Amino acid sequence: MPTAIHRRITGLPCLGPSAWPRSAFTWRAVLAGLVLVPANVYWVVQMERARLTAWPTAYSLFFNAVFTLLVLQLLNLGLRRLKPSIAFSQGELLLIYTMVCIGSAIAGIDFVQSLMPIFTYSFRMASPENKWDKILNPYMPKWLTVQDPRVIRGFYEGGVSFYRPYIVAAWLLPVAMWTLFIVVLVLVMVCINVLIRRRWLDEEHLDCPLTYLPVELSQPRVGLLGQGLFWLGFAIVAAVEICNSLSFYYPVIPEIKLTPLNLAEVIQGRPWSAIKWMPLTFYPFLIGIGYLMPTDFLFSCWFFYLLWKGQFVLSEALGMYGPDQLAHLPYANFQAVGAYLLFAIYSLWLSREYVVRLGRLIWGLPTTLRDDREPLSYRLAAAGLVGGLAALIWFSMAMGMTFWASAAVFLIYCMFSLAITRMRAQFGTPVHDLHHVGPEILITSVWGTESLGRKDLIGLSILYWFNRAYRSHPMPHQLEAMSMQQRTAGTSKGVVQAVLLAAVVGSVATFWSFLHIYYDLGASAKGGRFNVNTFYRVQSWLTAPSGPRWATLPAVAVGLLIAFGLQTMRMHYVNWPFHPLGYAVSNSYQMNLVWMPLLVAWALKTTITRYGGYKVYEKLKPVFLGFILADFVVISILNIISIILHVPCYRFVD
After folding, report:
1. pLDDT tens across 94-121, in order?
2. What is the largest CA-CA distance in the chain?
3. I want to staple 132 with a disulfide (CB 3.0 to 4.6 A). Which of 123, 126, 402, 527 is the partner?
4. Nearest to 208 by CA among 486, 609, 601, 574
5. Backbone phi, then psi, for 587, in 5-degree steps?
6. Nearest-CA neighbor of 621 among 641, 596, 601?
7. In a domain, 422, yes or no
């Protein structure tokens, strides 16, 4: 088959006998990844917690990882000129990029950052008024927390070396246990990805739009960096960001405001005050990411965002709106849960025939399905999935939780993870946070806190850290890594090993980064109180138990039915503009910052494709990739300088 035709049909490189697929999992790529993972983890912790200057893991495309890939590519292009034999291949560069993404996700805003207060906060803040020393702390597992007052004091107040023997000894066991938990959780994710990879990537041909920039950036030749249109887009955005950063340091220089207005401040008075926060933003990197997304999904994101705001206003006008979205109309978070669950269920339903073939292969029955080109054999992946879930449930039961509560937590988590991974692979959505409606909220809302035991409630509050939101979720990066390796190296073998190594090193590096910074500067000053509402929530569960919130199940059902209806209409009408996934992701904190750039991207993409066609759309794509990379490069350099020189840094996104 000619190369051009093969690429058009499969999206994969044409590999002849002399170019048989070779795994990018080489000793030098792994070594480079293991060096760069701790460096990026420390960088992320400095930005997101110590300095509060940028939040790379709040969005699907991590700018620190892209910047790291760019630096590697520039060095690699130099190596190709001087000594081509020692230069990295494209697959090796992308494997390093994947390892950096996994490490950054673990250190990210909705992962270990939310775990750090779990170790100590209830012991630090216990008082006669909250009675935590009686109702909470005696039931906190000693092997997962740090309870020595001397160690806790240094953690919060700083000015103490973390490397004192008694401090290291106090942290060693709980850090080791949580590291083991994280690695097993990542193992479960990667096993699920191995089992679904063939169906989603090879048979359904999901594009993984967020891989487009890394793949183009890592081309063996100059590629994207040699295109004039790319540099045009890069120059425009870089000029704006440099001007704004100079304005930050020298106010006499005028600022080009990318967040000029919050509509909530203009539209005041009831019922319009229910919209709360509705900023107009014009972030170039989000416009660039939006340009790569399908047009109908782009439209649905901003349309349903406005529809959610309309629901808030209507509920306020009817006197049924309140600050707690879990207890008042329109129950937006629970509606979003229903839409997420529908997307996960629908994805499994589409794969039902594949699942049957997969089951036959795992059980050794005759089937046409083969796994010799997969990262792991399907039997080993299935064993890893079952064994990993069993280990996670056992871990939770060792904390004191019952089997059914533990199983429910990880079943719900896997459903959310599947939906998020699918939406990233299919549409490249820039956000998927689903704030404050994880398994602990669903379980206590459906069953009521009075029906759950004390240890179940405390266990749910401890496991809150990886369910607070899902912005820095590791699982989508794994499937995207398999897609990139399949397209560039011809095989995704080695991805599993690289991901697990990055998970181990990333976890250790994350804990070290936090402890090193907090014992030096003090957690009270640098984010030690971050995401501690789980303790106050479990206090209310224990002191004022309540029955089920009967309105939550109908709200979930409504969200599921609306998403099902939108999907049904989409299947029957070719030009149906409303996408159920847009309905699911548009009700979130992060969408407040994203909706306007996506609207701009939709308007630009619609105009370009309508009047210029697909060829013009493809021709202009480098301009928008330049938008993304310019934002990422400028803010990366500014943050590195601010960390080295200990000076404030311009924030390019709120």
Report:
1. 999 999 999 999 999 999 999 999 999 9
2. 77
3. 126
4. 486
5. -95, 85
6. 601
7. yes
